[in-house]
Amino acid sequence: MSAYTLVLQAPALSNTDVAALAELSGASGVESRSANVARLANADPARRDAVAAHCDAAGVDAAFVPAGKRLSDYGLIVSDMDSTLITIECIDEIADMQGLKDQVAAITERSMQGELDFVASLIERVALLEGLPEEALGRVYAERLQLTPGATELLAACKANDVRFMLVSGGFTFFTEKLKAELGLDYAHANTLEVENGRLTGRVLGDIVDAAAKARLLRETRDALGLKPEQVIAIGDGANDLLMLAEAGLGVAYKAKPVVRKQADVAINHGGLDAVLGLFA
């Protein structure tokens, strides 16, 4: 039976919470401790629900990870873009340029919760953008797009440990390609908005990057790199990411919808993306 470490992370991790969670998890002791991270040795994953209940109330992120795992044990991280690597939903901000943010954002939310078919909902939302000048996309990138806290640290650690980083998004290539160039990402995949005479037509070109496509792109890239499934980390927040997370050796739900948190291996609800680094020794 594999040994597990319970990793606790919070902006200010109290000794009271560490002690309580050590008892709840059946851990044999504190392996290491800093101001915002504690590693509890030989924790029992069967006690996950009790640990999660305490952590939800205390504002602590908890993850059961195989003992001794390091970031360098992985070769590929696959991440969603909107509300994961970046703080916004690009399509909602584009729609705001049309005065339709509330309408589009409501559809986006239902899609991410898994209540709507992703492909149908994307087609519906993109259709509402018809006639918008292409320059509006540049305004969203320049004025509204921000990296998620901790993203810079995560990407730097990937480069230092020779871990490839792939952005795979149900959003748009206008944004993924700019991020790929700016951040030095290894791969990026997304949907292409059709533009005619400088304006959006309200259509998407080619096949849509949906949940199945995200999982397929993960597998294809993993296999091309000669990696095993357990050498891949996937990070996402919406129902469209579930198949991708299931394909990875470690599926991380980042500030995700309940349906995603429930099915992921690890849920980060309070920290930044650098909390992924805290999972490893």
From TrEMBL:
Pathway membership, UniProt: Amino-acid biosynthesis; L-serine biosynthesis; L-serine from 3-phospho-D-glycerate: step 3/3
Pfam families: DUF4072, HAD
Record-annotated DUF4072 domain positions: 6-51
Cofactors: Mg(2+)
Gene3D superfamilies listed in its UniProt record: HAD superfamily/HAD-like
Membrane-spanning intervals of the chain: none
Example GO molecular function: hydrolase activity
UniProtKB keywords: Amino-acid biosynthesis, Hydrolase, Magnesium, Metal-binding, Serine biosynthesis
Principal EC category: hydrolase
Protein name (record): Phosphoserine phosphatase
Origin species: Crenobacter cavernae
